[in-house]
Amino acid sequence: QVQLVESGGGLVQAGNSLRLSCVVSGLTFSHYAMAWFRQRPGEDREFVSVISWSGRDTDYSDSAKGRFTVSRDNAKNTVYLQMSSLRPEDTAIYYCAAFKDSARFDLVPRSILDYHDWGQGTQVTVSS
Description:
The structure is a single chain. The chain is mainly β. It has strands spanning 3-7, 10-13, 18-25, 32-39, 45-51, 58-60, 68-73, 78-83, 92-100, 117-118, 122-127. The strands form two sheets. Strands 2, 4, 5, 6, 9, 10 and 11 form a seven-stranded mixed sheet that branches. The protein has a four-stranded antiparallel sheet with strand order 1-3-8-7, with no helix packed on it. The chain is globular and about 45 Å long. The protein starts with a strand and ends with a strand.
């Protein structure tokens, strides 16, 4: 059974930082690109960041670029999202998701349609 479990969310003031974690089980973690999406109140789920299976390649949304850093530890089956300079508009539920990179091409897909395994999400609230 595939499980993705996010943690690290919480309430922070604008300008501060948070680090989210997502621990994965039930799949061969090193065969998967891992992404972070978020869903703000009343909005659709949107792409935030992705890291390839090896960690070599990453991609970020315009909003995340320069403030967020994605990383992974394949030995721990864990992907991280370090978020800095947080803004009230970053308030959302953050989800991690897995994409099977069968040929291990270091793919970094941004489309929500490419992801079939999801965590339950962790709430991030940024106060002004």
